[in-house]
């Protein structure tokens, strides 16, 4: 950030005499620096207000004639998975899940009326942070690349690992994760997994957790459409498809996961 | 000798039979819950112990004048007891061998088993014990066990309280326990809604649980053991690893009211830092991450189902104050203080209790009331290394719970104003450190005298001295445990200290050390009865009321339980009733005016002068005014308190001398009942069902509670629906001081409920 502001100062941004609108936490954190180092006055706008305005605007103009908003059909089937357009003309009420470093969940009732339902600190920053520590990777892209080649079932303990199959009493399928990183309690298993497996497990854990929380919020707020946005999902098809599947499965088809091209 | 092999089954520890696997000979109905590292074994057995019984003599042709009032005989009685023992899996083989060697009963063919380990150890158990293993579903057992402890063990539930002298705040057991949410945090998290005894539903779960903490923790910090990870976490600073709101905003996120110190992204600093993180910081961050996530999900489910109480269990919680703290914080945050995070004292035993109940369904254990046996039960977290780091002795690796089956079901007094808010005890010693220190010292100092008296009460027994010494040692150890961990058995109160002492006395076959003393005093008092009545009858009405109350209080002075009094009584054998009356200080005026009550319930205190010369004249007065009287006495002995069976004999003798009492008995206007208690104190939420029924039937509208144990140590603040009178003489100078008076001051609390 200081380097950026310095550049702005060198290029005389302040002589442009236009309002520099800024949002996000940094607009507050760096406001002072912008003024002193770059002689720039920021017009601070709340990030959630901006987020919602942005979502509604971008959907209204579309994406080169295509729909901005889409969903997945058959998300877990590699062959048959399809991105299909979704009409957001009558968007309300909507649950908006913004996954950045952390997560904010908003319930939107109208253009002017929304509330922040809750948030979670287990977000994109956690995925990336844990990956760096576990695998030594240094960029988000690298972390995702590793994850795409890994097998999380070596790292996680599944229902079938405990019960030998489905746990019928609770309606839990054998493939569901019973304990994330649960196999890592054993020294032998720790020594037998690869960095890719760990990256994948981290991705799955964070993604499923966000899906769970989003689902519970949707139930509590009585909303059945959930839009996922944020940088965590940028180029992250694995997470998007997993969210789509999980939301559909655990809600027995009652909830729909939606995405935007320009999340 | 102890020789542990790393990871191998320990074969050579010797188990002292009196301490750990007790009463095995007649054990039946076994159940076992084998978890990842701990095994819990349950069995039902009978315990033989001595009970003092009283019986009227057959008077034909005997010398009535010199004969004792009644016959005391010591008999063997059998009570049913549930035993639960917890130990590490490494000892499983040794324990099974031990059980096989001591088990005599051959009726049992089956052992109920639950827990993941039930699969792994099935063959070993079947081979060693010769019993068939019958597997039960773990969640079903957990819920059944949970229902049982919630119903039967007072002070089972506690909440974590920050910034308090002792961090655990125990809750009163609500009469209706359903519905509730149970969150079990093992490797993963299960969330179960329990609606009735048999109806429960898995409503959700999470894969981020104890296994995640352990697994990720091991990967990040190279620490192999769960307990060690927690130790690391307790020393770490998560702010070095997590990205906080202030890291993003430079301060608080004002518009939403999010504090700058909130975690915006767990492990969020990992991406930007150049340096390595310490193990402690990473462990702390992990702990917060997981606790917060579980708390959030639990709150979301609680909200959906409209529940405001969540019970937490599972190895992530068990015995770990640091996880209880973080979970409590998380629940408070996400529910904005509307939902309570609660923990169970016997959480680790739930599965074993449930498995046992499944096997014992024929006996219908739920129709009985059960009580915790303090003598045989270990305290909370007796094996937790964080809390009790000194506990390295072999027996420290075993933890026990014993529950005695009570003969009669216990229920609430119908006259309690608000049963769910009723707390019997007046002072909470877990909270009040000064009071705690005083009372623990007081009981320590009195112990020698109690042990001596116990031995002296059985002069014909060869091993009385030996048993008395064992009693002394056992109770002493309990007191030391309570000094270290006041919360070991729930809320610490004078009542629990007294009850523990009684349990220990019973344990070593001293069921009624004062039986002979009581018998003698009853005899002497009966001889004075008629003259007392005559002098009362000669007084004017108002004077008589005052004299009756004074007499009631004076009689109450005669209490061996109070050191001050036993000092006097021991040094002045002629100390009589009249002298007692004059020793009382500051009696307030007391006249019971107004129309006579329909029915009075009197909870009596001491034997001898108290009941015969204090209570009975008062009872007689009430009866003459047309008020019915229910006289409630202890079911079992405690100190020199009058027991129900003694009261029957005493009443019979009085009736022979007094027509008022005689006709009241005949017309059933004077009724004698047992309270269901064997304590010097009184818990109005656990009374004999028969008493409760009678109270309702007779429309009792006046309750009289006498004595320090029942009216001051307990029930001083009890609120009833009807009029009540609490009477006692303070025989303890510290307590007198506390309450603002002098020793031998009088408490006379007459309360009328507000409309």
From TrEMBL, chain A:
<dbReference type="GO" id="GO:0005634">
    <property type="term" value="C:nucleus"/>
</dbReference>
<dbReference type="InterPro" id="IPR043129">
    <property type="entry name" value="ATPase_NBD"/>
</dbReference>
<dbReference type="InterPro" id="IPR004567">
    <property type="entry name" value="Type_II_PanK"/>
</dbReference>
<dbReference type="Pfam" id="PF03630">
    <property type="entry name" value="Fumble"/>
</dbReference>
<dbReference type="GO" id="GO:0005829">
    <property type="term" value="C:cytosol"/>
</dbReference>
<dbReference type="GO" id="GO:0015937">
    <property type="term" value="P:coenzyme A biosynthetic process"/>
</dbReference>
<dbReference type="GO" id="GO:0005524">
    <property type="term" value="F:ATP binding"/>
</dbReference>
<dbReference type="GO" id="GO:0004594">
    <property type="term" value="F:pantothenate kinase activity"/>
</dbReference>
<protein>
    <recommendedName>
        <fullName>Pantothenate kinase 2</fullName>
    </recommendedName>
</protein>
TrEMBL record, chain B:
<keyword id="KW-0533">Nickel</keyword>
<dbReference type="GO" id="GO:0015937">
    <property type="term" value="P:coenzyme A biosynthetic process"/>
</dbReference>
<feature type="domain" description="Damage-control phosphatase ARMT1-like metal-binding">
    <location>
        <begin position="442"/>
        <end position="741"/>
    </location>
</feature>
<keyword id="KW-0479">Metal-binding</keyword>
<comment type="subunit">
    <text>Homodimer. Interacts with PKM.</text>
</comment>
<dbReference type="InterPro" id="IPR015844">
    <property type="entry name" value="PanK_long"/>
</dbReference>
<comment type="similarity">
    <text>Belongs to the type II pantothenate kinase family.</text>
</comment>
<comment type="similarity">
    <text>In the N-terminal section; belongs to the type II pantothenate kinase family.</text>
</comment>
<protein>
    <recommendedName>
        <fullName>4'-phosphopantetheine phosphatase</fullName>
    </recommendedName>
</protein>
<dbReference type="GO" id="GO:0005634">
    <property type="term" value="C:nucleus"/>
</dbReference>
<dbReference type="InterPro" id="IPR004567">
    <property type="entry name" value="Type_II_PanK"/>
</dbReference>
<keyword id="KW-0173">Coenzyme A biosynthesis</keyword>
<keyword id="KW-0067">ATP-binding</keyword>
<dbReference type="GO" id="GO:0005524">
    <property type="term" value="F:ATP binding"/>
</dbReference>
<comment type="function">
    <text>Phosphatase which shows a preference for 4'-phosphopantetheine and its oxidatively damaged forms (sulfonate or S-sulfonate), providing strong indirect evidence that the phosphatase activity pre-empts damage in the coenzyme A (CoA) pathway. Hydrolyzing excess 4'-phosphopantetheine could constitute a directed overflow mechanism to prevent its oxidation to the S-sulfonate, sulfonate, or other forms. Hydrolyzing 4'-phosphopantetheine sulfonate or S-sulfonate would forestall their conversion to inactive forms of CoA and acyl carrier protein.</text>
</comment>
<dbReference type="GO" id="GO:0046872">
    <property type="term" value="F:metal ion binding"/>
</dbReference>
<dbReference type="GO" id="GO:0005829">
    <property type="term" value="C:cytosol"/>
</dbReference>
<keyword id="KW-0547">Nucleotide-binding</keyword>
<keyword id="KW-0944">Nitration</keyword>
<dbReference type="Pfam" id="PF01937">
    <property type="entry name" value="ARMT1-like_dom"/>
</dbReference>
<dbReference type="InterPro" id="IPR036075">
    <property type="entry name" value="ARMT-1-like_metal-bd_sf"/>
</dbReference>
<dbReference type="Pfam" id="PF03630">
    <property type="entry name" value="Fumble"/>
</dbReference>
């Amino acid at each position: 950030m200081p380097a950026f502001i310095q550049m702005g100062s060198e290029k005389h941004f302040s002589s442009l005499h236009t309002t520099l609108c800024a949002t996000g936490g940094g607009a507050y954190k760096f406001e002072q620096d912008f003024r002193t180092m770059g002689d720039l006055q920021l017009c601070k706008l709340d990030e959630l207000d901006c987020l919602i305005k942005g979502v509604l605007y971008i959907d209204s103009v579309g994406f080169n004639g295509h729909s901005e908003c889409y969903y997945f059909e058959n998300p877990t089937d590699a062959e048959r998975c399809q991105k299909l357009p979704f009409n957001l003309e009558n968007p309300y009420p909507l649950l908006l899940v913004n996954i950045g470093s952390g997560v904010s969940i908003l319930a939107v009732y109208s253009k002017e009326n929304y509330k922040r339902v809750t948030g979670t600190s287990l977000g994109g920053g956690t995925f990336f942070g844990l990956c760096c520590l576990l695998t030594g990777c240094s960029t988000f892209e690298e972390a995702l690349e590793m994850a795409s080649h890994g097998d999380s079932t070596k790292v996680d303990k599944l229902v079938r690992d405990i019960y030998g199959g489905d746990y019928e009493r609770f309606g839990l399928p054998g493939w569901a994760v019973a304990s994330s990183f649960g196999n890592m309690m054993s020294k032998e298993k720790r020594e037998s997994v690869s960095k890719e497996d760990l990256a994948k497990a981290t991705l799955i854990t964070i993604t499923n957790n966000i899906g769970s929380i989003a689902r519970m919020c949707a139930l509590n707020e009585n909303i059945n459409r959930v839009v996922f946005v944020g940088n965590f999902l940028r180029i992250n098809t694995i997470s998007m498809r997993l969210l789509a599947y999980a939301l559909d499965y655990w809600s027995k088809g009652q909830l729909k996961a939606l995405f935007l091209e320009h999340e | 000798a102890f020789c542990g092999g790393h990871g191998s089954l320990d074969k050579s520890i010797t188990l002292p039979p009196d301490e750990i696997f007790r009463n095995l000979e007649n054990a039946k109905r076994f159940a076992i819950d084998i978890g990842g590292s701990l095994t819990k074994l349950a069995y039902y057995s009978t315990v033989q112990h001595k009970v003092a019984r009283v019986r009227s003599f057959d008077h034909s042709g005997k010398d009535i004048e010199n004969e004792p009032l009644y016959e005391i005989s010591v008999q063997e009685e059998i009570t049913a007891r549930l035993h639960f023992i917890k130990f590490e899996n490494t000892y499983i083989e040794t324990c099974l061998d031990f059980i096989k060697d001591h088990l005599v009963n051959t009726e049992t063919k089956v052992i109920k088993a639950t827990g993941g380990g039930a699969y792994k150890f099935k063959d070993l158990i079947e081979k060693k014990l010769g019993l068939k293993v019958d597997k039960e579903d773990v969640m079903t057992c957990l819920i059944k066990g949970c229902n049982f402890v919630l119903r039967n063990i007072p002070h089972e539930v506690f909440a974590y309280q920050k910034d308090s002298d002792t961090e655990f705040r125990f809750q009163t057991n609500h009469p209706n326990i359903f519905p509730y949410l149970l969150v079990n945090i093992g490797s993963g998290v299960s969330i179960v809604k329990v609606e009735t005894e048999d109806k429960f539903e898995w409503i959700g779960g999470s894969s981020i649980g104890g296994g995640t903490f352990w697994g990720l923790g091991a990967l990040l910090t190279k620490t192999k053991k769960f307990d060690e990870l927690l130790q690391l976490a307790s020393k770490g600073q998560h702010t070095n690893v997590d990205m906080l709101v202030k890291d993003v905003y430079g301060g608080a996120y004002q518009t939403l009211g999010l504090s700058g110190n909130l975690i915006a992204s767990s492990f969020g600093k990992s991406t930007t830092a150049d340096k390595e993180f310490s193990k402690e910081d990473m462990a702390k961050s992990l702990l917060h991450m997981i606790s917060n996530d579980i708390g959030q999900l639990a709150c979301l489910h609680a909200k959906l189902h409209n529940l405001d109480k969540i019970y937490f269990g599972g190895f992530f919680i068990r015995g770990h104050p640091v996880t209880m703290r973080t979970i409590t914080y998380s629940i408070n945050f996400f529910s904005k203080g509307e939902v309570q995070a609660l923990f169970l004292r016997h959480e680790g035993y739930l599965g074993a209790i449930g498995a046992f109940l499944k096997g014992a369904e024929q006996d219908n254990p739920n129709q009985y009331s059960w009580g915790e046996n303090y003598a045989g039960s270990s305290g909370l977290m007796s094996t937790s290394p964080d809390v009790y780091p000194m506990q390295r002795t072999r027996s420290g690796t075993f933890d026990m719970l014993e529950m005695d089956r009570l003969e009669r079901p216990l229920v609430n007094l119908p006259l309690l104003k608000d049963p769910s808010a009723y707390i019997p005890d007046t002072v909470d010693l877990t909270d009040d450190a000064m009071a705690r220190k005083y009372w623990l010292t007081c009981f320590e100092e009195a112990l020698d005298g109690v042990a001596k008296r116990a031995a002296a009460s059985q002069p014909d027994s060869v091993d009385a001295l030996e048993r008395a010494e064992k009693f002394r040692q056992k109770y002493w150890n309990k007191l030391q445990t309570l000094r270290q961990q006041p919360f070991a058995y729930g809320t610490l109160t004078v009542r629990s200290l007294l009850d523990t002492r009684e349990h220990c006395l019973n344990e070593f076959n001293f069921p009624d050390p004062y039986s002979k003393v009581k018998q003698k005093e009853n005899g002497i008092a009966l001889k004075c009865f008629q003259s007392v009545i005559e002098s009362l009858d000669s007084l004017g009405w108002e004077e008589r009321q005052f004299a009756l109350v004074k007499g009631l209080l004076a009689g109450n002075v005669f209490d061996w339980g109070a050191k001050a009094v036993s000092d006097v009584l021991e040094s002045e054998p002629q100390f009589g009733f009249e002298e007692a009356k004059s020793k009382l200080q500051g009696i307030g005026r007391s006249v019971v005016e107004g129309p006579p009550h329909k029915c009075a319930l009197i909870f009596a205190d001491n034997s001898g002068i108290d009941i015969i010369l204090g209570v009975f004249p008062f009872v007689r007065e009430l009866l003459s005014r047309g008020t019915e009287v229910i006289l409630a006495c202890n079911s079992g002995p405690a100190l020199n308190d009058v027991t129900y069976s003694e009261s029957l004999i005493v009443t019979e003798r009085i009736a022979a001398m007094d027509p008022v009492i005689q006709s009241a008995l005949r017309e059933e206007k004077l009724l004698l009942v047992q309270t269901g208690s064997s304590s010097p104190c009184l818990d109005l939420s656990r009374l004999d069902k028969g008493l409760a029924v009678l109270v309702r039937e007779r429309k009792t509208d006046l309750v009289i509670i006498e004595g320090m144990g029942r009216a001051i140590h307990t029930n001083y603040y009890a609120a009833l629906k009807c009029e009540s009178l609490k009477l006692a003489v303070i025989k303890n100078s510290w307590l007198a001081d506390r309450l603002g008076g002098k020793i031998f001051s009088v408490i006379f609390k007459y309360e009328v409920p507000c409309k």
